[in-house]
Amino acid sequence: MSTGNMTENTDYQFVEKENQYLDDHFNAGDESMRPTERIRNLRKELKKYRFSINTERAMLLTEADRQFEDDAQQLKGAKVLAHILDHISIEILEGELIVGHAGASPKHGPVFPEFSINWILDELAHNPFEKRPHDRYQVPEQVKQDLRKLHAYWQGRTVSDRILEQLDEAQKSGTSSLGKGIYLATLYMYGGVGHVVPNCERIFELGWIGQKRRVEGKMAELSETDDDFSTRQAFYQSQLLTIDAVT
């Protein structure tokens, strides 16, 4: 397992202040209400990690996007997800019951170049992540090189680029990032997809095998004479690829 970037020898005083504050409150109150030894040990381990930018997921995404560039968008999305899940690093800490981290290792933030990439390069050049007054992140040299490679590929291909292509000058002038701040488009242009709730109830009821059989049944009902045959076929195929990827 990867050890990640630890906080040893760091001069980040704000990290130490934060840890001290949490220590003071962590051990306060009634003994019966304090966290268990497992939780205390996990927290002690997490304190060793340094907040860092992680590009592993972004590099795998880009690799797969190139490979499946000519596929229908639904199929490409499923194949890209499968490629990421097949190759991404997994780090499991001693004592964890719910495992997995957004950026491969604890306290590692992934980047999502498919949504927006220009702001990341702008921050590297003019407002380095490691020098922010708040939310500081270490950016190793290899990660900086990765980000520049990602920028070269994704420039002109991102969700942000697609949105800007469809906005006229009057619409741009009202946005928070490009104009007077009458309305906010920033989250959807730069922040990626959020506030999405999957139908977990169906998975609990059917299980992944049951869901796979359900999709296969839907595919069997298709007829090549259907007006939307190709679209629905690609959708069901992408669903099967996704189910296989997460199981």
Low-confidence stretches: 6-12
State the shape.
globular
Give, in spatial order, the strands making up the sheet with the most strands: 1-2
Name the helicity range: 40-55%
User: Could you tell me the number of beta strands?
Assistant: 2
Largest sheet: 2 strands, parallel
Strand content: under 5%
Distance between the termini: 21 Å
- Seen as an oligomer or otherwise, the chain set is single chain
- Listing every helix as H and every strand as E from the N terminus to the C terminus, the arrangement reads HHEHHEHHHHHHH
**Protein structure class:** mainly alpha
Rounded radius of gyration (Å): 22 Å
Query: Mean pLDDT score, rounded?
Result: 85
Separate helix tally: 11
Give an overview in words.
This protein is an all-alpha fold. Among the domains are: 54-92 and 111-190, no CATH class; 200-246. It is 53% helix and 2% strand. It contains 11 helices and 2 strands. It has a two-stranded parallel sheet. It is globular and about 70 Å long. The relative contact order is 0.11. The model is unreliable at 6-12 (pLDDT under 50).
Task: Describe how the helices and strands are arranged.
Layout: H1 13-26, H2 37-46, E1 52-54, H3 56-67, H4 73-87, E2 108-110, H5 118-126, H6 141-154, H7 159-166, H8 169-173, H9 186-190, H10 200-220, H11 229-246
Parallel strand pairs: 1-2
Helix pairs in contact: 3-4, 4-11, 5-6, 10-11
Summarize this entry quickly.
The chain is mainly alpha-helical and 247 residues long.
